[in-house]
Amino acid sequence: MGRRVWSWQSVFSTAVLYGSLALFISILHNVFLLYYVQTFVSVYKIDKVSFWIGETVFLIWNSLNDPLFGWLSDRSFLSSPQSGSQITSPEVVLKRLKALSTNGPLFSLSFLAFWVAWASPGLQFLLCLCLYDGFLTMVDLHHSALLADLAVSAADRTRLNFHCSVFSALGSFSVFLSYSFWDREDFYSFRIFCVTLAAFSILGFFLVSRLLRQRFQKEVLPKLDEAQTLKDLSVGHAPLTHPEKPVTIGQYIKQLSQHKNFLWFVSMNLIQVFHCHFNSNFFPLFLEHLLSDNISASTGSILLGISYVAPHLNNLYFLTLCQRYGVYQVIRWLFMVKLGLSVAMLLAGADHIYLLCIFIASNRVFTEGTCKLLKLVITDLVDEDFVVNKRQQAASALLFGMVALVTKPGQTFAPLIGTWLLCAYTGYDIFEREPVKDSLASVPDVASGSGTPPLRLGCFYMVVFVPITCALLQLAAWSRFTLHGRKLQGIKTLRQGAQHGHLIDVKAI
Questions:
Q1: pLDDT value at residue 449
Q2: Which burial class, exposed, middle or buried, applies to 160 when counting CB atoms under 10 A from its CB (0-12, 13-18, 19+)?
Q3: Which of 180, 188, 205, 287 is 20 to 30 A from 462 (CA-CA)?
């Protein structure tokens, strides 16, 4: 058995194994994003009050659990190197891999709780959201933190992110398959499909995290132990004294409040998270009311699948651009493209069906593509935080958690604001049990020469004005972000110098 495990370790590189973890997350999370609202509204018949209460509680929990779990994970890293015993990078990596091997399977099990009615719709909606997001947070925090802990150079981090994009693209094919199984009238086939996905994800988390831990322990730790022994025997080496008091959560928050680049980044990212989840939550609705009368069901299925797969494939190209021009410049270009496409679609109007198909798909592609690049920016912020505040170790998971504290409310605002806009401007309430046509009976015809129905026109304005507004706000915030170019290179040089001897070379693993 040991030889078999080692042979598998020899076949797959560390970057491939790290990237494969994204597959086991994405095959479940894409299905969750696409169907959880429809399941509770259309299948379980949740009432409007319970839906809003559940989303409000979820907003609070969704924002607080990231910094909470990040603090519990990384609080020992916040002190400066003079505060006593050193914590090495290998120890940090092994700690994160152990957390993934435990929380990954639990995350997969929590995914299954959505698809079987086991309590009243309101109570189940609340408990399922909080349970699922808790385990997702633990998995995502440690997986994202490994990106900053395994490598410091932009090239190595880009390579790790490249493999994540490849496997995330593979995971998005679950969306293609889900469309074939989804039937709100007969839910049995969809449940079997979800159980199959969860079983595959559980097995994947267990095997990959085990392989990574074994590889790291066998190949990296002996070399670092030898280097540490030689260092301890060096003439003139003396143990560190005068330990400092550990940094409290209040002091850490104060440090972040003075971190200007962090503040501008989370302002931009809050809008980005809102826009990504707005697209995910309302994509089926836009397909139904903007395109369903003009395209076949199979075309809608393909368009839906492409919108989930293409961002990951397109991100492979974006990453090559990042190596040439830098992450900052590529993200800025993506914001400008999003703005330009939205304005062009607004001028063209809602009657150009094929142009509308391309726009809806490309809007999601560019929006999700931007989200995939933002982890690289957060790892740069981890480096800056490490250097400016003289950390003992980079508090990667904690900084990812603090970013989520500010930005994850966008995930809850998306369905709330979207349903409110839809009801306010079209009179259509997704919680109404009556057919859509009946709900439009009392709405006067829109003053339009084309006679476009109010619901369809309202959906069109939502699909163009939301990205226009988001792009303008994001360009304003992103122009104030200064961690790029020579400043970023200087930060990376300082971190590499401070942690020389503790850094992990991904190519050497």
A1: 39
A2: buried
A3: 180
Sign of CA dihedral 473, 474, 476, 477: positive
Query: What is the rounded distance in angstroms from the CA atom of residue 283 to the CA atom of residue 290?
Result: 10
Cβ–Cβ < 8 Å for 124, 118: yes
pLDDT of residue 223: 57
pTM for the whole structure = 0.75
Q: Are 149 and 94 in contact (CB under 8 A)?
A: no
Please give the pLDDT value at position 390. 81
User: How far apart, in Å, do the first and last CA atoms of the chain sit?
Assistant: 21
Q: Which two tokens stand for residue 485?
A: 């170019």
Residues 328-351 have pLDDT tens digits of 999 999 999 999 999 999 998 888
- Alpha-carbon distance of 398 to 144, in angstroms, equals 11
Buried b (16+ CB within 10 A) or exposed e, 426-436: bbbebeeeeee
Q: What is the pLDDT of residues 63-81, one digit of tens each?
A: 788 888 888 887 766 655 5
> Is 491 in contact with 81 (CB distance < 8 Å)?
no
Q: Where does residue 185 rank: exposed (0-12), middle (13-18), buried (19+ CB within 10 A)?
A: exposed
